Amino acid sequence: MVIRQPDTTAEAGARERQRRLTKPPGSLGRLEDLAVRLAALQGRARPTADHVHITVFAADHGVTAEGVSAYPAAVTVEMIRNFAAGGAAVSVIARRLAAELEVVDVGTAEDYEPPAGVRCERAARGSGNIRHEPAMDSATRERAEASGRASVTRALTAGADIFVGGEMGIGNTTAATALACALLDLPPAHLAGPGTGLDAAGVTHKVAVVEAALARHGRLRDDPVAALERLGGLEIAALAGAYQACGELGLSVLADGFIASVAALVAVRREPALRDWLLFAHRSGEPGHGGILDALGAEPLLDLGMRLGEGSGAAAAVPLLRLACTLHNEMATFDEAGVSES
């Protein structure tokens, strides 16, 4: 399928409405730009952000065997249970937003009984240890991406205006760092961060593991699919597939932090036109996120030092989108209010 083009007629209508609202032009800053951008993506001069769909993709990573996380691999499944029980940060925010939240297991390694509400769509039982082997083969990547695409179809069927993709997977900041380093041709020391809370020695070890993975798999800057297969993770592949489906089917994306942005980088490198469909919610506390945002030409909405993942930073930015739409749709025009124009 082909990535859709934003609706320039709806965009022009939204800009004209902004010009006629009772305020000096540009006085609401980026809130005006957000409303106009959403109008173009939604194909209507009066956009909405009322119906938000959040999908958290979860998977395990073989690279955790290298000691790159402050938490054991078992936490991935434990957090799946926490999402389902409503106790995770993104679960709490989703309730407050009245957003649809689903959890999709695309690659845990552990045998467990999925809680009610969790979709078990394993593409594999965890990714390979990227220090010694590829993360996945092509068929596995395609299965993970298909799970991402299916989540977007469900979101659209449910009437979503905005899609948020979250992730959970112990070790996934290591995979995301390796993937970003390969695509941007940057040394790991520039992008590696604490992830789940590593100290300085832990980050140094993480850098060494990523360096070894990059040396093993060679230069991949110009081949995002191969980079994803050799260095990525199953939840990262699912996110990339979801983003591409959003561009093809016409659903606005509010992208989360470091890992979600690396998935976006993969997807945009594969389909550059997809960039138009991506809004970036926040600047993560992970030190490497700034480089990813720069590569994508992205200016995030928030900078709160968050680095939790799960889609929590994107969910936290939803009220700004709603406010932008409400101001755009409900403010009076100069004619309606009987106010003199400049």
UniProtKB/TrEMBL annotation:
Q: Where is the active site?
A: E310
User: Which SUPFAM superfamilies does the record match to this protein?
Assistant: Nicotinate mononucleotide:5,6-dimethylbenzimidazole phosphoribosyltransferase (CobT)
Documented EC number(s): 2.4.2.21
Stored Gene3D superfamilies: 1.10.1610.10, 3.40.50.10210
InterPro entries xref list:
Nict_dMeBzImd_PRibTrfase, Nict_dMeBzImd_PRibTrfase_bact, Nict_dMeBzImd_PRibTrfase_N, Nict_dMeBzImd_PRibTrfase_sf
Q: In which pathway does it act?
A: Nucleoside biosynthesis; alpha-ribazole biosynthesis; alpha-ribazole from 5,6-dimethylbenzimidazole: step 1/2
Q: One Pfam family, short name please?
A: DBI_PRT
Extract the ranges annotated as region (Disordered): 1-26
Tell me the domain of life. Bacteria
| Reaction catalysed by this enzyme | 5,6-dimethylbenzimidazole + nicotinate beta-D-ribonucleotide = alpha-ribazole 5'-phosphate + nicotinate + H(+)
- Name the enzyme's class: transferase
Biological process (GO) annotations held by this record are: cobalamin biosynthetic process
Function according to Swiss-Prot or TrEMBL: Catalyzes the synthesis of alpha-ribazole-5'-phosphate from nicotinate mononucleotide (NAMN) and 5,6-dimethylbenzimidazole (DMB).
State the family named in the UniProt similarity comment for this chain: Belongs to the CobT family.
Q: Which protein is depicted? A: Nicotinate-nucleotide--dimethylbenzimidazole phosphoribosyltransferase
